[in-house]
Amino acid sequence: MKIRPAWSAFAALLSLVALMTTCSARAADPVTPDAAKIVAEREARIGWFREAKYGLFIHWGLYAIPAGEWKGQPVPGIGEWIMNRAKIPVPEYAALAKQFNPVKFDAEAWVQLAVDAGMKYIVITSKHHDGFAMYRSKVSPFNIVDATPFARDPIAELAAACAKHGIRFGFYYSQSQDWHEPGGAGNNWDFPANGEKDKSGAYDKYLREKAEPQLRELLTNYGPTCLIWFDTPQMMSAGRSQRFTELVRSLQPACLIDGRLGASGDYESTGDNAIPPANKVGDWETPATINHTWGFKKDDHDWKSPGEILFKLVDIASKGGNYLLNVGPTAEGVIPQPSQDNLRAVGAWLKVHGEAIHGAGRSPFGPEFGEFSATQKDRAGRPLFLKRDDWRCTTKPGKLYFTVFGEALPRDGFALPAFKNAIKKAYLLGDPSRTVLTTNLGADGVRVVPVPRPAPVAIANVICVEIEGDAVQL
Ligand code: H79
Prior knowledge:
alpha/beta, TIM Barrel, Immunoglobulin-like, 3 domains, 4-stranded antiparallel β-sheet, globular, binds ligand H79
C-alpha cells in the first residue's frame, strides 16, 4: 500500500496516541492480565482448528425415519425440521423411537470415511432441535439407549473409533430449541410460545434441568471433546450463554465453542452454506450441506460433485476459514453412497495436494475472488459480486500454492499475480517427479509459470511456488 508522507506522519501520530492510551489503560486496569490470559488460552485451544481446515458434520436422528415424508405427504424444507414443518405432536414424534434400529451403523466405517476424505474432525448431532439424545443420557429417557430397540450408544462407539484413527470428535448440541420439552424454545404447536416460556421461568428450568446437565454428560463421558457446536441461540441472553461457556471451560478447557452459542465463542460460524465473498479476518467456519438437507431425506439426490466440493474447500481455505461438510445417514445407519463417493474423490485429491490445504493460510492477494459489477445490481439493489473461479491461493511460510481449477491448465502458462519476492522454484504438487517449471517474464513484466498440457491431475492442479522470505511482499 502506498501512503503519502503527510499521511504516514499522521498515521504514526495516531498509532503513538493509541499506544499511549493502551499503556495508560493497562497501568490503570487490573482486568488486563486476565484479558491477556483469555487471549492466550484461546490461541492455545484454536491451533488444531486452524490446521484442520476440513471436517465432517453428521446430522443423524429420528428424523431419518420419516426422511422428508409424513403420512404419505412430502414435507418441504430440511429433513431434520420435519417435526416443526408438519407440526407433529410430541407423543407422535416420540413414537418414532420405537422403530429406530440402525443395525447397519458401523462407527469404524464412518470414521474411516472421514479419514479417506482427508477430514480432520467430526461433529455429530448429539441432540438436535427435536430434543432426542443420540447417546446414553441419564438426564432424559428420550435417548437412543433407553427409547429404541437399538439400545446402543453410537456416540461412545464413534468416540472410540475417532481416538483410534486420530480424528478429533465434537458434538452439535441444540441448546435453545428443544421441541420435546414444554420449556424448550421452538415448539409453539404443543406448548406456549417462546416469550411466555421466558417469562414464566419454564425456559430457564429447561436449560438447568436438561440442556446444562446433558452438556455435562457429553463433556464427561466421551473423552476429549474438540468442539461443542451450539446452534440457533433463541433467548440465549448474555447470562445464560455465560453459564454454558463456564460449563464447557470448567469440564474441558481445550474444547472449542462455535459461534452460535449466544455469546461470542472461539470462532465465528457463518450462516448455513454461506461462504464469504472474499478474505475474512479471524477464525471462522462454514457449515454446509452436501445436497440440500442436513438430516437424511429420501428425495434429495442433488449431490455436490467432487469438483464443487473441492472448489468450496479451496475457496474457503484461501479466505482463512474451515469447511464443515455434512452427511445425513439413513435410519439404517448408512451414509448415502453418493456422499461417500464424492467425499472420497476429494480425499484422493487431498492425498496428493493436502499440503496446500491442511495448515495452510489465507491468500495474500484478492482479485482472484472476483469483483463488484459496475453496472449490475443484486436483488437488494447493491452492486452484484461477480465471482471468479479460475484459481485460488493458499500459503505456508516461503510457499504459495496456486490451485488452478478445471481439467486443463492455461495454454499460455499460469500468469502469477504481482508480488515482489524472488522465486526459488515452481512445480506441480501432482507431478511425482516435481519437475521444476522455470518461470519466464512476459513483455508486460508479469511472471508466467509454464505448465504442461495435459495437466497431470483431473479436477484441479496445484502449482507450488517457493519464494525468498517467509511472507509475500506485495
Ligand atoms: O442443523 C442444521 C439446521 O437444522 C440448523 N442449522 C444447521 C446446521 C438450522 N436451524 N435453523 N435453521 C437452520 C434455519 C431455519 C430456517 C427456517 Fe425453515 C425457515 C425454519 C423455518 C423456516 C427451513 C425452512 C427450515 C424449515 C423450513
